[in-house]
Design brief:
By secondary structure, this protein is α/β, with parallel strands linked by helices. It has 11 helices and 10 strands.
Length: about 280
Amino acid sequence: MEYATLPNGLKMPLEGFGVFQIPDLKECEDSVYAAIKNGYRLIDTASAYANEEAVGAAVKRAIEDGICTRDELFVTTKLWIQDYPDAERAFSLSLEKLGMDYVDLYLLHQPIGDYYAAWRSLEEIYRSGKAKAIGVCNFYPERITDLCLHVDIKPMVNQVECHPFFQQSEALKAAEEFGYTLEAWGPLAEGSHGIFTHSVLTAIGEKHGKTAAQVALRFNVQRGIVVIPKSVHEERIEENLDIWDFELTDEDMEAVEALDLGHSEIIDHNDPATAKFLSSFSIHD
Ligand code: NAP
């Protein structure tokens, strides 16, 4: 495992485990436990995923079984738009569900709504020590540039969709300019574009004795981007972490770079309909 260093010196593993779309709490707990047992140390959840308690239960079980200690883990959760006006209360609820007294990273989930007010709350939470780092998700270059220019504490992480078919080169440049780390959600493109059997990724993988999925993940970590693949299957959980014993050549990297479409086919944050849909999505009464 290699690490990114956040602007405050905190080490963030370059690979972690995501739990979006695992609504079954038992399945989520078992998947997170399997991930930790197999060596993952970063877990990415969100209040909007409705599975923070399952993540907390898996972490508790892994610690009790002597697999790791809490301080070896890097736990991320996120604040949903609906809770932007009362972030401190939502954060307390997340901690309660996780059964933790701090998280390693707390993120604003969307660049929608009163995110300036929410960001100021995250700054306070960070100052309290209950979040070791703070950041945002889905802030594209123009919006994060604006945020970085007008806040006391700049985001330390920006989590955006990023994979071989949407490579986020502009977001990477902005990350370098403002010093935050880019984190890739959907690093396997949520299975779209035939990624697992894609001819270019498969051919590169064959040279290294790796799968197309492993090439896709390796492509991002070699760009310094954190990846958080999700799977509920233990053999895939293992496969996705087995990317630390090979290196893509410059030629391999160029071949993957040529796959970039430059836009998302999962969600378009530039589309007004996306702002309307996400704003109407409630995670509680
Ligand atoms: P992803 O990790 O790109 O893809 C997950 C899909 O790929 C699942 O259908 C999984 O199926 C399948 N899969 C995983 N490994 C595989 C392998 N080796 N071979 C074949 N199939 C494989 O998508 P994601 O879950 O959307 O993104 C990852 C994480 O990013 C999320 O879990 C979440 O933590 C975070 N995220 C954040 C945001 C945000 O707005 N901040 C948005 C989306 C996601 P099985 O589970 O059946 O194996």
